[in-house]
Write a structure and sequence with these properties.
The chain has helices spanning 27-43, 56-60, 72-81, 101-112, 134-144, 163-171, 175-182, 198-201, 287-306; strands spanning 2-5, 15-19, 47-53, 86-91, 115-121, 147-151, 155-156, 159-160, 187-193, 207-209, 220-229, 232-241, 253-258, 269-279. It is an alpha/beta fold and 311 residues long. It has two domains: 2-156, Rossmann fold (3-Layer(aba) Sandwich), CATH 3.40.50.620; 186-306, Beta Barrel (Elongation Factor Tu (Ef-tu), domain 3), CATH 2.40.30.
Length: 311
């Protein structure tokens, strides 16, 4: 997969294209990509995605922006796994957001990406003031030589599949629903970095997984599956949150204690898959009380995996 930081002033060749934030790359996104791949094969063209950075709401209403399900790196990996050939990152600024819908079509879709077939969601809006819609795309497509297809929203058990639905499921601690909407367990990836070594003091070595996001879609203590270490699938217990017993006002952290594992993995890039919630974060009156609870969390995690052999 080729990744382009920005849209070129002149297209390198014709494309089939879809546009969106693709946060989480859930089943709805996958359906759109599958439809795009089918069309790309028919036309002998690459599968291209135009995505935005930052999310428009992070620019215009940062206090109201939802927590990201995936970092940019995670999103790119998921798009690669889905069979995308080209990803174009549209740098969303106040200047770029001022393009009218017609300017966006002419400068980005036609000149920059040479679109031959475009697939969008049935509620897709674009351009200054979100004035552009499917009808405008279709009318301009007829003039500029590209076709447009609107993919209807898909539902799962009467739930509309969307990034918002995944966030709501995670917020409600419904990891099973989140996994069904995503088509896989929810996960967070990051590099293992040095922390404050508190886990070692408490008798439970932890991998401190770097989080490159300010807000998180879930928090608490979880039974997790960890991948990224030479193909191994390891079990562990993870705490994600602000560690109220140890710190105050600290940015969120993700710490994972791997069961029956004692190797040095600093610098490794891990994928932490959240399978089962054990408890919420809580503040303990002493480190001894915290230590006892961690021991109980480890046992609860072992019990969970003993009853879930496919975890």
């Amino acid at each position: 997969m080729r990744f382009f930081l920005g849209v070129p002033p002149q297209a390198i060749g014709p494309t089939t294209l879809t546009i969106g934030n693709f946060d989480g790359v859930h089943l709805g996104h996958r359906a759109m990509l599958d439809a795009l791949k089918k069309k790309a094969v028919e036309q002998g063209l690459p599968v291209a995605v135009l995505t935005f950075e930052p999310h428009p709401r992070e620019l215009f209403a940062p206090d109201q922006a939802p927590p990201r399900l995936t970092s940019l790196r995670e999103k790119l990996e998921l798009l690669k796994d889905a069979g995308v050939d080209f990803v174009y990152l549209y740098h969303f600024t106040r200047k770029s957001s001022s393009l009218s819908a017609e300017e966006f079509i002419a400068e980005i879709l036609v000149k920059g990406l040479s679109v031959r077939h475009l697939i969008v969601g049935d509620d897709f809006r674009f351009g200054k003031g979100r004035s552009g819609d499917f009808a405008l795309l279709a009318a301009n497509g007829a003039r500029h030589g590209f076709t447009v297809e609107a993919l209807p929203t898909i539902s799962l058990d009467d739930v509309r599949v969307s990034s918002s639905a995944v966030r709501d499921a995670l917020l409600a601690d419904d990891l099973d629903l989140a996994a069904r909407l995503l088509g896989r367990p929810y996960s967070i990836a990051g590099r293992v970095v040095h922390g404050d070594k508190i886990g070692r003091v408490l008798g439970f070595h932890t991998a401190n997984v770097q989080l490159k996001r300010k807000r998180l879609p879930l928090s608490g203590v979880f039974a997790v599956r960890v991948s990224g270490l030479d193909g191994e699938r390891l079990h562990g217990v993870a705490n994600i949150g602000v560690r109220p017993t140890l710190t105050a006002g600290m940015k969120p952290v993700l710490e994972v204690h791997l069961l029956d594992f004692g190797c040095d993995i600093y610098g490794a890039h891990l994928d932490v898959h959240f399978l089962h919630k054990i408890r919420n974060e809580q503040r303990f009156e002493s480190r001894e009380a915290l230590q006892a609870q961690i021991a109980a969390d480890v046992e609860a995690t072992r019990t969970y995996f003993a009853g879930n052999k496919n975890g």
